[in-house]
Design brief:
The complex is a heterodimer of chains A (282) and B (293). Chain A is mainly alpha-helical and 282 residues long. Chain A has 13 helices and 2 strands. In chain B, strands 1-2 form a two-stranded antiparallel ribbon. Classes of the chains: A mainly alpha (282), B mainly alpha (293). At the A-B interface, helix 1, helix 4, helix 5, helix 6 and helix 7 of A face helix 1, helix 3, helix 4, helix 5 and helix 7 of B.
Chain lengths: 282, 293
């Protein structure tokens, strides 16, 4: 090899190194999840499995209650993401398309403040508030409602910004024509604006779904019954109890990252654009 | 336009659910944190106003300052270690012709995963007996390290995991900015005989300063938000050495039901974040000019 070609291959070597550092932990978990038992993991922790043990998945799914956590996460994430979209799209419609007096601009900025408030500072007040709020004499804290309400509300500022930006770009003549045709404000929203907004709705749905699916702090402190736990919290509990059963724990990890992996594989372009536009974390 | 879209009742109807949730979960808790932060309250007895006592308590508490310092470590590590790495790899990816799409897609994956689950996964890697790092160390004939339970290494281990998770996220942002620079600028420099290093440092990096500024801002905000990774990996241990302000708040506010004191920490998180943002805007962001090509 000439010096020139060595020089040329350096970037690739560095990048492949970075790629391995990024992807290897996932591969490691995937391998561990099909290894025989903990002895095999202990004697051969980082190699390819010598035999395949898919029963780890069954054990994790059924006996370790991953199925319960999985369904809780699926239910809460889906419900909250849909609720956020419904309320935010209605609000964004009023703010961008109705332009009632001069209030709209102020309201938009009022909602923007939400992005500047650090979530951790609100943790305790929300905890206390949900503890005081009752439904049929039962405090909301400790029930799924304690996650559904803050998850739905928490995504509002980001969702309103994205949807407002999208709705603002729709030309105003559309409403004029619709009003001529006798549509009401509700009709314009449901039949004209919403269908046009679908690409943005899909993006915010996915991003909110992933955010809710991954959320840990509220899920850890606002829910105390095992049956009601979400997947990340269930996984941590599982680790703390069975911290020697690496094979089953790995199978559990695969269950908890699989849905997001699949969504990302299919829709990575929307996810990257939406996330980098909103700048959710870091 | 006509009255259909100017009906105040329709306007209110469309906004009401949104505003109700927003006020309930953003504005009211914010106000509540600011008022109860000045009270003595354990959740059982009536809250009692006690002035600045909670804040004095926090400022006199070594463990609180240790947690503030850990947020500081997060910020310093992000800005001085992570950001150069982000810029370096973004430049590399932008310059290669093959596999660009693969690199861009793959490096982003950790940032869509649950931080809690990534914490569990990395606990395997840091495992003292069978973990990857100690396996490598012993192969090299070095002493194994108790990564997460050794007070010298615990915070560092968390910072590494956090950087692993988020570096790719920012690379994609910076990469987008680099790829948006018109090719002619770079081509002209090549014609003038500028080396790859000169082009990167004299042309590309100055042109992407605005996005680097955004990355720094976002990583500071992220450093103030970090909590889940710590709870999962060390739970503040050993002996509170890896606590950040948020986990400290949780320990006092939620676990020990010191609502008044906990909320005063919440107020301090808010104030510190605000000061950081203001300082940043004043010192750095103002000097970074937006470039029009």
């Amino acid at each position: 090899m000439t010096l020139r070609s060595v020089k040329k291959s350096i970037p690739h070597i560095l990048l492949i190194g970075y790629l391995i550092a990024t992807l290897y932990p996932f591969l490691f978990v995937l391998f561990s999840s099909i290894k025989s038992d903990n002895q095999a993991i202990a004697s051969n922790p980082f190699g390819f499995p010598s035999s395949f043990h898919f029963e780890n998945y069954y054990e994790a799914w059924v006996n370790a209650k991953i199925s319960v956590y999985f369904l809780n996460s699926l239910y809460i994430s889906t419900l909250c993401s849909i609720a956020t979209i419904i309320f935010s799209s209605m609000g964004a419609f009023a703010i961008t398309r109705m332009r009632y007096l001069k209030m709209s601009k102020g309201l938009y900025q009022f909602i923007l403040i939400g992005l500047l408030i650090p979530g951790n500072a609100l943790l305790l007040p929300i905890f206390i508030m949900l503890n005081k709020m009752e439904v049929f004499g039962q405090p909301i804290l400790g029930t799924h409602m304690a996650l559904i309400l803050p998850y739905t509300a928490g995504a509002i500022p980001f969702t309103v910004i994205i949807l407002s930006a999208f709705m603002r770009s729709i030309p105003g003549e559309i409403e004029e024509a619709s009003v001529m045709d006798g549509l009401s404000a509700k009709g314009i929203f449901a039949k004209i604006i919403l269908p046009i907004t679908v690409p943005a709705l899909v993006t915010v749905f996915i991003i909110n779904f992933i955010g809710n699916w991954n959320e840990f702090i509220l899920a850890n402190f606002f829910i105390s019954t095992d049956e009601l736990r979400t997947l990340p919290v269930g996984m941590v509990g599982f680790r703390d109890i069975y911290n020697t059963n690496y094979a089953q724990m790995s199978a559990g990890i695969v269950f908890s990252i699989l849905p997001v992996m699949i969504i990302y594989a299919v829709l990575q372009k929307q996810i990257i654009e939406g996330l980098t536009a909103g700048g959710v974390k870091g | 336009m006509n009255k259909t879209l100017r009906n105040p009742w329709t306007y209110v109807l469309f906004l009401l659910p949104l505003l109700l949730l927003y006020v309930m979960f953003f504005i009211y808790p914010m106000i509540s944190a600011f008022t109860t932060g000045f009270m003595k309250w354990n959740g059982l007895t009536e809250p009692r106003f006690n002035g600045l006592t909670n804040f004095e308590h926090a400022f006199g508490d070594d463990k609180f300052w240790a947690s503030v310092l850990n947020n500081g470590k997060f910020i310093l590590f992000s800005v001085f270690v992570q950001v150069p790495v982000i810029i370096f790899f973004s430049l590399l990816i932008s310059n290669v012709k093959k596999l660009k799409g693969l690199y861009k897609t793959a490096v982003f994956i950790p940032s869509v995963m649950s931080t809690a689950v990534i914490g569990i996964l990395w606990s395997f890697i840091y495992e003292p007996d069978i973990g990857l790092f100690n396996l490598i160390l012993t192969k090299l004939g070095l002493q194994p390290v108790m990564w997460l339970s050794d007070s010298h290494w615990a915070m560092f281990s968390i910072l590494i995991t956090n950087a692993w998770q988020w570096t790719g996220f920012y690379i994609v942002m910076v990469l987008a900015a680099i790829l948006a620079i018109p090719k002619e600028i770079d081509e002209a420099a090549i014609v003038d005989g500028a080396s790859a290093y000169t082009r990167a440092t004299r042309i590309t990096v100055p042109l992407i300063m605005p996005i680097i500024s955004v990355v720094i801002m976002l990583s500071i905000a992220g450093a103030m938000k970090a909590a889940d990774i710590i709870i999962v990996m060390t739970d503040g241990g050993p002996g509170g050495i890896t606590d950040v302000m948020a986990t400290y708040l949780i320990k006092y506010g939620i676990t020990n039901a010191k609502y008044g004191y906990g909320n005063s920490i919440g107020v301090l998180i808010f104030v510190f974040s605000l000061i950081l943002t203001a300082l940043y805007q004043f010192l750095i962001a103002r000097r970074v000019e937006r470039v029009e090509y």
